[in-house]
Design brief:
By secondary structure, the protein is of the alpha/beta class. It has helices at about 5-15, 30-40, 55-60, 80-90, 125-130, 150-165, 180-190, 190-200, 215-235; strands at about 20-25, 45-50, 70-75, 90-95, 105, 115-120, 135-140. It is globular.
């Protein structure tokens, strides 16, 4: 990797927000989901929780080549598991949903651990999602249309979340744990080796201070020897 690339990876990782995430409640159009994930990356979100059907998920994978590299997508078939997981971790669930109790999206404190829930195109969040949410928010509009596109709404609300967190100094310090930082730095910097290791259940090789693999030829030789030993023992 070039020094500029290494510096860029460190800058991005140092600004990741481990307590800010998204839940998509059956957002099934691949282009919208990809746009949401691109926005998530832009504001420092590392993980997105997507409730989506099998066929729609397969279509989405074909449209998300770039964004998938930087944001980990956790896929679910039902809404309950991700909501219960995040609530157990102390997240407030903020749903973009026009209801009688909905607040202007500016009025929410996004410096708290927050999961923004976004619903399907046209129909919005499900009744289950509405019930799970701690807060409903809406983006004020003055035109004839009734709602923004879901990816546009995500961008507007997450920009406010980023602004509040910027004001609070949450982008000025490393907030993800060191183990996650090191893992992501390796995976982003060495995607081919990452894929090789994951496919063969190998530990990642150590890196030098310049971000390159330490003694790569030795590591590759050791890895091939280990794989050969596994193959021989499996016979």
């Amino acid at each position: 990797m070039t020094p500029a690339r290494i510096q860029r990876l460190h800058q991005v990782l140092a600004r990741r927000q481990p307590d800010l995430t998204l839940i998509t409640d059956d957002v099934h159009k691949g282009r919208n989901l990809s746009a949401i994930i691109r926005t998530a990356d832009a504001v420092g979100i590392s993980d997105v929780h997507c409730v989506i059907g099998d066929s729609d998920y397969k279509k989405f994978l074909g449209t998300s080549m770039g964004s998938h590299s930087w944001v980990e997508v956790h896929r679910y078939r039902e809404l309950t598991p991700p909501v219960e997981l995040l609530k157990a971790q102390g997240y407030q669930i903020v749903a973009a949903h026009l209801s009688a109790t909905a607040l202007d999206f500016h009025e929410v404190d996004y410096t708290k651990p927050t999961a923004l829930m976004l619903g399907a195109e046209r129909v919005g969040i499900s009744e289950q999602g509405e019930a799970y949410a701690d807060i409903h928010v809406t983006v004020p509009m003055v035109g004839m249309v009734e709602s923004f596109n879901v990816s546009v709404a995500a961008g507007i609300i997450l920009t406010e979340a980023r602004h509040q967190r910027q004001q609070a100094g949450l982008y000025e310090q490393q907030r993800i744990d060191q183990a996650s930082y090191d893992r992501l730095f390796f995976e982003w910097g060495h995607p081919k080796v990452r894929d090789f290791c994951l496919a063969n259940q190998l530990d990642y090789p150590p890196l030098r201070d310049d971000g390159e693999i330490d003694n790569p030829s030795v590591w590759y030789a050791q890895a091939r020897e280990l794989l050969a030993q596994r193959a021989a023992s499996a016979k």
